[in-house]
Amino acid sequence: MLIVAEVRAGELIHDLGRAVLRTALDQAARWQALHPGPEVAVDVSPAQLQRPGFAEEVAGLLAQTRVRAGDLCLEVTEGVLLEPHGTSSANLRALHESGVRLAVDDALILRAVADLGRARQCQVLAEGVETPEQRRVLAELGYRQAQGFLWSRPAGAAAITDLLRSAGVTTGSA
């Protein structure tokens, strides 16, 4: 835990976050060469969102990797949605306007997030769905997208690549 605290406290969080995002986008580009449509979701720390120019940095990485903004979902904590003004809000607004999808990573505030998403005309994504009952409740709350063990355990890049290949597409490289 000390390492995580050190990463969050310093500039390293920005470098690490950029590297994780770049790796995810590089992999998404390889998957999209095999089969159109794979999307990628990446956790973003509040510190990254508080950094001026973060949205432009994301746009630059999308351009470099040639991944469409709509194929990227950035997962944020609910706290960043509560700051109506400031750098985080400006970055979130710019990301949303560019087409990047945003997801809130906390199941405890599902109803509030669904309402906020509707009010701001944003799609919301529920995470950690494990049972058909959870899926039903989320649908009743207005969630049109969800992910979790109900559909699949986390899979590595090689497993996703194999899945896309099994879909019948044989062009491209992994």
Structure description:
It is a single chain. The chain is mostly helical and 174 residues long. It has a single domain (2-160), classed as EAL domain (TIM Barrel, Alpha-Beta Barrel). Helix content is 51%, strand content 10%. It has helices spanning 2-9, 12-34, 46-49, 54-65, 87-98, 110-119, 132-141, 157-166; strands at 40-43, 72-76, 101-104, 125-126, 145-146. It has a three-stranded parallel β-sheet, with helices on one face. One of its GO terms (molecular function) is cyclic-guanylate-specific phosphodiesterase activity. Pfam families: EAL. This is EAL domain-containing protein (Putative c-di-GMP-specific phosphodiesterase class I).
Strand percentage: 5-15%
Taking the alpha carbons of the first and last residues, their distance comes to 34 Å
Whole-number tally of structural domains:
1
Largest sheet: 3 strands, parallel
* Tally of alpha and pi helices: 8
Share in helix = 40-55%
Q: What is the structure about, briefly put?
A:
The chain has 174 residues and is mainly α. The strands form 2 sheets. It has a 3-stranded parallel β-sheet with strand order 1-2-3, covered by helices on one side. A two-stranded parallel sheet has the order 4-5. It has a single domain, classed as TIM Barrel (Alpha-Beta Barrel), CATH 3.20.20.450.
Mind sketching the topology for me?
Blueprint: H1 2-9, H2 12-34, E1 40-43, H3 46-49, H4 54-65, E2 72-76, H5 87-98, E3 101-104, H6 110-119, E4 125-126, H7 132-141, E5 145-146, H8 157-166
Parallel strand pairs: 1-2, 2-3, 4-5
